[in-house]
# Entry
Amino acid sequence: MMHKRYTKEQLTAVEAQRLAQEIAFGPVVFQVSRLMLKFGIFQLLADKRKGYTLQEISVQTGLTRYAAQVLLEASLTIGTILLEEDRYVLAKAGWFLLNDKMARVNMEFNHDVNYQGLFYLEEALLNGQPEGLKVFGGWPTIYEGLSQLPEQVQKSWFGFDHFYSDNSFSQALEIVFLHSPKRLLDIGGNTGRWATRCVQYNQEVEVTIVDLPQQLEMMRKQTADVPGAERIHGHGANLLDRTVPFPSGFDTVWMSQFLDCFSEEEATSILSRVAQSASKDSKVYIMETLWDRQPYETGSYCLTQISLYFTAMANGNSKMFHSDDLIRCIKNAGLEVEEIHDNIGLGHSILQCRLK
# Structure
């Protein structure tokens, strides 16, 4: 896919010129389309295939004629709606914005979490720090501040995170539990969604989550009433502190959407400590969305754009991995890849590893 898509020009001159203008007006296109959703105009057009006139849309939505008109005319040239005589109707792109859950999750994530902070992307790239995070607070990374972010920002952040992981967990459980783990170490377990699925999937497994103390507090609240919660344990640690070892004695180590939160150097340090704590029989599973191993090019597009969230907002130095980069980190840490499972959920891959 990469060779076919990214080594040869795909556009005509006219198409390239159009794309250049779409890029120049990108922030406007984004906000217009978001408001077409929020004000219910896309839904209105979806509910009536013959469409509505400008005046009817104004009345139905409660928007002034002017407000409805500027949104509709912009959307017409964006390509999310069409005009049939004097009636506006929904186009395919508008339908996807309305009905594709991934598009909605990405849009909410970009508006609530990233939009203001991306103004500082230039400084973030030059300084290697998440300079955009200052729109919410003074934490060194977003992870320390998750529990203190505004409610809507938290909702969109966790909605984004959980949407991608939850769609992969059912397949992932089958792969991990093929080897009947008894003691599973979940590094970077966040709010405990994977641990919860594990203790519900298997009545014997014990899961220990390693994460920041404040994340473990959120995890305990989230899992308090979960059947099997007594088999979910917490181990507080600053994962970036290279002097902090990981607990040992686990037959299985799990990391999901975790290593992309760190630079290659930091990821290698974490993996090295995994190798130090593992036995020769331990299985190490790393689940990531690798941008070069996506079944569709749209997935690669989304993931490379999401990388800039890490740059501007999360930590200033990580990104969505190319598989070659992640495999290099794994090898440098003293581990080796046994098998790669692709097409897990929405574009995830699971790298099954062991000690060299």
